[in-house]
Amino acid sequence: MRKLLSVMTVLIVALGSVLVGLGLAQSELTCEELEPSTDDLAYYVGLGNGYYAQGDFNTAVIVYSCALATDATYAPALVARGFSYTALGNLTAALDDYNTAIELDDSNLAAYMNRGILYTQQGRFGLALTDFDFVIALEP
Predict the structure, then answer these.
(1) What is the rounded end-to-end Cα distance, in angstroms, of the chain?
(2) Cα–Cα distance, 60 to 109 (Å, whole number)
(3) What DSSP string describes 11-52?
């Protein structure tokens, strides 16, 4: 799992650098301005991750929301948007996204892990421990 997270981090930073180089790291973006070269919703998550890596959390939220406008049940976009909401300090929206992702996929490790971290930040240690225990049970 650590190896996967390391690879994902490298890809996020690389994509963010490409966005800046192309001049796409703008503050206001609409879904209509995004023209994915594929119908794969992972495109939006990758693009949002690039904005996130550059510290443009608001634009990342917009991009993840574009994926969810296409398919409201796409859990990876919910988890990623929740992470961006956390970076923005909007913990209520982040928790809503994590909860929805878990409702859609009750084995979504990233949603449980991020929700556990959020609970820890809120001082809700019992709930955090429950989520972390579940992650360990799914991925010993």
Answers:
(1) 10
(2) 21
(3) HHHHHHHHHHHHT---S---GGG---SSS-THHHHHHHHHHH
